[in-house]
Write a structure and sequence with these properties.
The protein is an alpha+beta fold. The chain contains four helices and three strands; from the N terminus they run E-E-E-H-H-H-H. It has a single domain, classed as Hypothetical Cytosolic Protein, Chain: A, CATH 3.30.1230. A three-stranded antiparallel beta sheet has the order 2-1-3, with helices on one face. The protein is globular. The structure holds zinc ion. The site of zinc ion has 7 residues, from loops.
């Protein structure tokens, strides 16, 4: 899953396979069944792919929502790290006199 780092479950978000194989966020980490764990970080969440989830759950799984947005809607803060630095370039590339 994602970055493939195993971390404390407190530090991670649980995803479950819901009705019709559509992935859902399990904010209480208490839904029955197998869960997939991911860091609430933009880079990690965006690395979650339907194919990887299908392997984790051993069944066809689909992602029908923007997981980052879904987490934020549930009040889970998503760290804005792990991207390839597109925003960093925009922030630093000001009006230089090169
Ligand atoms: Zn991660």
């Amino acid at each position: 899953m994602g970055c493939k780092k195993i971390d404390q479950r407190d530090a991670m978000v649980r995803l479950i396979r819901g009705v019709a194989g559509v992935v859902r966020i399990d904010p209480k980490r208490s839904a029955p069944g197998r869960g997939a764990w991911v860091h609430p970080r933009r880079g990690c969440v965006q690395a979650v792919k339907a194919g990887g989830l299908s392997r984790t759950f051993r069944r066809e799984t689909r992602i029908e929502i923007d997981l980052v947005e879904g987490l934020q809607r549930l009040g889970i803060a998503v760290d804005d790290v792990g991207t390839t630095g597109a925003s960093v370039g925009a922030a630093t590339g000001g009006s230089g006199t090169r």
